[in-house]
Amino acid sequence: IPVDPFDLVIFGGTGDLARRKVIPSIYRRFLAGQVPDGARLIGAARSDLDDDGFRDMIREAMDEFEPDTDRSRLDEFLALTCYIPVDARGDMGWETLKKVVRGDVISAFYFSVGPSLFGDLAEHLHAHEIIDGTSRVIVEKPFGHDLESAKALNAQLRAYFEERQIYRIDHYLGKETVQNLMAVRFANVLFEPLWNSNYVDHIQITVAETIGVEGRGGYYDASGAMRDMIQNHLMQLVCLIAMEPPNRFEADPVRDEKLKVIHALTQPEPHQVVRGQYEAGNGHASYREDVEDDRSRTESYVALRTTIDNWRWAGTPIYMRTGKRLSAKASEIAVYFKAPPHAVFEDEGARRQNVLTIRLQPNEGITLDVTIKEPGPGGMRLADVPLDMTFAEALEEGTEVPEAYERLIMDVMRGNQTLFMRGDEVEAAWAWADPIIASWTARGDMPKPYEPGTAGPSDADTLLRRDGRHWRSIG
Ligand code: BG6
């Protein structure tokens, strides 16, 4: 279903995110017939380009980042684009922008720039009367560096936009499997009765990457894995896995429930958090070489154990880990159910655990490991089989799973905030993460070295071994 005509202004329109993700995603939705002819994409940045220069930049970005995407309608799509040089901190461009943005269609403003410019952009948009109570603003992470800075950013945006106009992107919420997790939990009767500490032994959340800091050393070294991944992406996954069923699948009912989870997350003890930093090896430079600081103490890996202090989850450990330069790219949530209380079968596998695995990438899908009798005459021998709900097979041939940004940008145009973070959620997530980071600083904690291409520092294994458990293998 196409959305209504819109004007989407992308500040930072010549930047990496716009070229790599935002513009190609809108083109793919255009190919899918969701972007109407009356839509317009307005690039805005400081670069001195004209419309044709901007369109050439998009063509080049498509060559570089989307070599396999169908080009047959690219010229038609480019006819919907234009470019205005705008200075976020100065006067350049604002009056032109005012003339170009139409008042009678949906207007959305994508702040694809560093957070230090959010306030300036909002103020100029207001001063030049380009926005009104129906305009929408889209912002990206990092949304602050800690609680205080996140509060300041919220205040800057709320000076000119109502909360219902602000779309804070966490691209993990746009991933297809993440939404499917909610469908599996709340559209079936099978899982919810077991979804609590009586039946769930523990939960593991892994977001492993093989890449290093990839030319973002400046940003990354000032952040580290805790701020870059745990505070936002992994936190959102914890919320969706643990939240109570919302009464409706709508923005505020969903976000109210997520917020309660964040408020109930316990602070890990220092020995329940493991930080790591990759060293040189397996053909890769070390983290310190990558960020060009041979004394950096920033972590490229974090593993931790927490719990959720409420009736449903009391005592169930939640283990999270994320890191760069690990053995494989793999993001998944695994819910380990308890073993049956009594062994009926005389087979050593008889007390195996059911595990529900929600794989975000690669090979997205949901699998439930169940124990059955091994077929054949060999007696009552048991075996685990996966019940596989892999999307590639479930989808009709030729249907593609849309990328996170495609879904999220279209949701902005539809005015649907369900998959966006509310200001209070972001602040609560920082309020949880800040003391953990502060305790590292206070203790002068050094991250543990680990070899590229491995599962991270061995202390992370100890974290689970202490509880008599072990991590799933990555990948
Ligand atoms: C980003 C982080 O938000 O997410 C990156 O800043 C990370 O450091 C990326 O690489 C991972 O996203 P994905 O979708 O590839 O898992």
Note down, in words, how this protein is organized.
Keywords: Carbohydrate metabolism, Glucose metabolism, NADP, Oxidoreductase. With 475 residues, the protein is α/β, with parallel strands linked by helices. It has 2 domains: 6-140, NAD(P)-binding Rossmann-like Domain (Rossmann fold); 173-403 and 420-465, 2-Layer Sandwich (Dihydrodipicolinate Reductase, domain 2). The protein has 15 helices and 15 strands. A 9-stranded mixed sheet has the order 14-13-12-11-7-10-9-8-15, sandwiched between helices. Strands 3-2-1-4-5-6 form a 6-stranded parallel sheet, with helices on one face. Helix 9 (224-242) packs across helix 14 (423-443). 6-O-phosphono-beta-D-glucopyranose binds at residues 141, 209, 228, 331.
Structural class: alpha/beta
Estimate the global geometry from the Cα principal axes. Answer: globular
Query: Residue ranges: pLDDT <50 for 5 or more in a row?
Result: none
Give the CATH topology of the largest domain: Dihydrodipicolinate Reductase, domain 2
Task: Please tell me the CATH architecture of the largest domain by its name.
Answer: 2-Layer Sandwich
Summarize the helix and strand pattern as letters: EHEHHEHEHEHEHEHHHEHEEEEEEHHHEH
Quick one: CATH superfamily of the largest domain? Dihydrodipicolinate Reductase, domain 2
Helix content: 25-40%
Strand order of the largest sheet: 14-13-12-11-7-10-9-8-15
GO molecular function: glucose-6-phosphate dehydrogenase activity; NADP binding
Keywords: Carbohydrate metabolism, Glucose metabolism, NADP, Oxidoreductase
Protein name: Glucose-6-phosphate 1-dehydrogenase
Family: Belongs to the glucose-6-phosphate dehydrogenase family.
